[in-house]
Amino acid sequence: MTGVILAAIIGYLLGSIPWGLVLARLSGYGDIRAIGSGSIGATNVLRTGNKTLAAATLALDVLKGVAAVLIGALWGPSAALASAGAVVIGHMFPVWLGFRGGKGVATAFGVLCAIAWPVALAGVAVWLVTAILFRYSSLAALVATVGTAVFAGLTVDRDRALVIVAICLLVVVRHHENIRRLLGGTESRISFGKG
Fold first, then answer.
1. What is the tens place of the pLDDT at every residue in 80-103?
2. What 3 state SS string does the chain have?
3. What residue segments make up the domains of the chain, in order of their start?
């Protein structure tokens, strides 16, 4: 039990590192929460026009999900799953930012890579297809999240499936503002072109 608690604490603290905010400030863009969706994630960083910075944010947010699971695994499978849930919660609700963080998609993907990589690959495939067809990152994330939850429920063991479904529900809830903008036709599109 001690290992599970320690893993959850470490996972939360790792998740609460706001890489998008840190990198944007270090690069001279100020507070990333003042533009676009107001989020600290890679999609909002991309709205600065700096694709390299957005890619770095994405990579670091994914890596903290992977790292949390690997650290938690040192205390066993249950601790790994506790850390998996905690790192996503930490990203979404970081104590340093008044519990107002990102949407959790990249960090959740990192978790999936570590605990169920075939599910992660399926989620990426769905995200890519949806993003290319509709050019809404949030819509792609929502469709991929639902698909991931269903696929996990069908393919992995009960404990991992429960954690994955819980994470997916959190991701959907954190997209409530995006859902409203999508329904209202005011959501920002993403571009795959050069420049």
1. 999 999 999 999 999 999 999 999
2. CHHHHHHHHHHHHHHCCCHHHHHHHHCCCCCHHHCCCCCCCHHHHHCCCCHHHHHHHHHHHHHHHHHHHHHHHHHCHHHHHHHHHHHHHHHHCCHHHCCCCCCCHHHHHHHHHHHCHHHHHHHHHHHHHHHHHHCCHHHHHHHHHHHHHHHHHHHCCHHHHHHHHHHHHHHHHHCHHHHHHHHHCCCCCCCCCCC
3. 2-184
